[in-house]
Amino acid sequence: MVLFHGMNQKTMKNFYINFVQKHLHDFFPHTVSNIRFVELMQQSALPMTIFLKLCCLGDKGYISVQLTQHLFDNDIHLFTTIKKNYDQFFYDFS
């Protein structure tokens, strides 16, 4: 899904059939049909939304300490290396 949104494909069907199945075959050798893919995407929408609520992927080098703290206080955790100028108090290492 992330790759689809980063490309200039008009539809998910076109992206899946003409890009994923053709050009990413080495990474996904056992792709399902487009119809089955749509079914699987519908089933995974809620779990993916919950996962994205619980964690975000990003580079703290571009995010202020204050925003990082605010996100952490709202249970949104950023996964990246710890910068030297960040205080350790808001990291949950458990």
Overview of the molecule:
With 94 residues, the chain is mainly α. It has helices at 2-6, 12-23, 34-54, 65-73, and strands at residues 55-57, 77-79. It has two domains: 1-52, no CATH class; 58-94, no CATH class. The protein has a two-stranded parallel ribbon with strand order 1-2. It is elongated, with a radius of gyration of 18 Å. The chain starts with a helix and ends in a 15-residue tail after the last strand. The relative contact order is 0.10.
Mean residue pLDDT: 76
* Helix and strand run: HHHEHE
Secondary structure category: mainly alpha
Amount of helix: 40-55%
> In DSSP terms, counting alpha (H) and pi (I) runs of 4 or more, how many helices?
4
Number of strands: 2
The largest sheet is:
2 strands, parallel
Q: Unreliable stretches, pLDDT < 50, 5 or more residues?
A: none
Domain count: 2
Rg calculated over all Cα atoms: 18 Å
N- to C-terminal separation?
A: 30 Å
Please state the overall shape, judged from the principal axes of the Cα atoms: elongated
Biggest sheet strand line-up: 1-2
Percentage beta strand: 5-15%
